[in-house]
Design brief:
The chain is α/β, with parallel strands linked by helices. Helices cover about 50% and strands about 15% of the residues. It has a 9-stranded mixed β-sheet, sandwiched between helices. Strand 4, helix 16 and strand 5 form a beta-alpha-beta unit. It is globular.
């Protein structure tokens, strides 16, 4: 009955987006076999276009669905209540299974295991010999063979930076320095390499993101693409570039999804858990715009940073987050980013595996001799080279970024 109420909320009562994401994020073990098959279908549909429809129930267990519409006549509560009841029922059943089948010692171990699972903690303490360390080292090497770093297609970048599952990668800069352009080029490159990503845009509308992507791929000036009057005056050559860009985007369509609008920390967490395994990474533009529950800005940014690291670890994928730098940069003679410039919380520096700082001299010196130079400094690289800089070409007219 609980599962039927959940389905009724999702398909008949058109429950809200957060309810959908919380339901799809719940581990399959809490559901019955017929429900598991429905949830798997829902996950595939939702990861494709962020929607569900009742047609997904076609071909599913008819006996299981028999009472679904009867439930709709009753007063339904929020799905979170039913999900909690479902988990409580699962743990109660697990305990009942142990009563007659285990001796006292094994029963206590099983109860402790269930308790840890409920609290989502692991209290096991291990002592490891040096021989075991050596054996574990080689075992871990074998595991890592199946975990390959994300490839961007930028040779120097890929040589220096290995974005591995579980990494929190921070791209930081002052406003207007090009961090959004850099990251959009990064995710588009990864899409071309066959990597599947989800890009959260908290700063721009969906149409703004689309305009930028089209400008990057076609190399036609952004102001010509987003202005209808200028678009109508495009040359044949520019129109040809846009047509080619459209075909190129079609070829990598399934490798990059865009999410924009009012996005909270809970929404990001729920969506990532609901689509676990569907994406190779997520990117967020930008960290300080995520809404969190902390009382002050310091505690909010700390909560956000910890949660993004948790997502990276739990979903076993890199999380790339853009971050503003503090105004302290402006007080120095050398305005290149430093780790201490990360805005509003030292927790970001602590949680990040990789921190990349962007600097453009033209931002501070309009008369510079090299107005297209973008310096990409590796400020922190937990498992690789740091304190080095890669030089990029930045073309503001069409938002293109590439290695020199």
């Amino acid at each position: 009955m609980l599962e039927l109420k959940i389905l009724n909320n999702l398909f008949v009562k058109n429950n809200n987006e957060l309810a959908i994401q919380e339901t799809l994020a719940l581990d399959n073990k809490f559901f019955s076999k017929p429900m598991q098959r429905i949830i798997e279908k829902c996950k595939k549909k939702y990861s494709a276009d962020f929607s569900l429809d009742i047609d997904l129930l076609q071909g599913c267990d008819e006996d299981f669905l028999l009472g679904m519409y009867d439930v709709s006549d009753s007063k339904l509560e929020d799905n979170s209540k039913y999900l909690k009841e479902l988990k409580n029922r699962y743990f109660a059943n697990e305990l009942r299974k142990t009563e007659n089948n285990l001796n006292e010692k094994d029963l206590l171990q099983k109860v402790e295991s269930i308790r840890d699972e409920i609290l989502n903690e692991n209290k096991e303490v291990k002592m490891v010999s040096l021989k075991k360390v050596r054996m574990n080292y080689y075992e871990n090497l074998e595991k890592q063979r199946g975990q390959k770093p994300l490839k961007t297609g930028w040779k120097k970048f890929d040589n220096y930076i290995q974005c591995m599952p579980g990494d929190l990668v921070i791209v930081c800069a002052r406003p207007g320095a090009g961090k959004t352009a850099f990251t959009m080029n990064l995710v588009l490159n990864m899409a071309k390499q066959g990597k599947r990503g989800l890009f959260f845009s908290l700063e721009m509308s969906e149409s703004s993101v689309i305009n930028r992507i089209m400008s990057i791929v076609s190399k036609v000036e952004l102001n010509k693409i987003k202005d209808i009057e200028k678009f109508d005056r495009l040359t044949d050559k520019e129109l040809h570039k846009i047509n080619e860009a459209s075909m190129e985007l079609d070829r990598v369509d399934s490798n990059l999804k865009i999410s924009s609008g009012s996005i909270t920390l809970d929404k990001i967490k729920s969506l990532c858990k609901a689509t676990k395994g569907e994406f190779d990474y997520i990117a967020i533009d930008y960290l300080q715009l995520i809404r969190a529950t902390g009382k002050d800005r310091f505690s909010q940014v700390t909560e956000i940073s910890l949660s993004l690291k948790e997502i990276a670890m739990e979903c076993n994928m890199p999380v790339i987050a853009l971050s503003q730098l503090s105004r302290e940069v402006e007080k120095r003679a050398d305005k290149r980013p430093m780790l201490s410039d990360l805005r509003e919380s030292g927790q970001i520096e602590q949680d990040a595996s990789i921190v990349i700082g962007l600097y453009r001299d033209v931002y501070y010196n309009p008369e510079t001799d090299d107005e297209r130079l973008m310096e990409v400094g590796i400020l922190k690289n937990r498992d690789g080279v740091s304190s080095c800089t890669i030089h990029y070409e930045f073309v503001g007219e069409n938002q293109n970024v590439w290695e020199r």
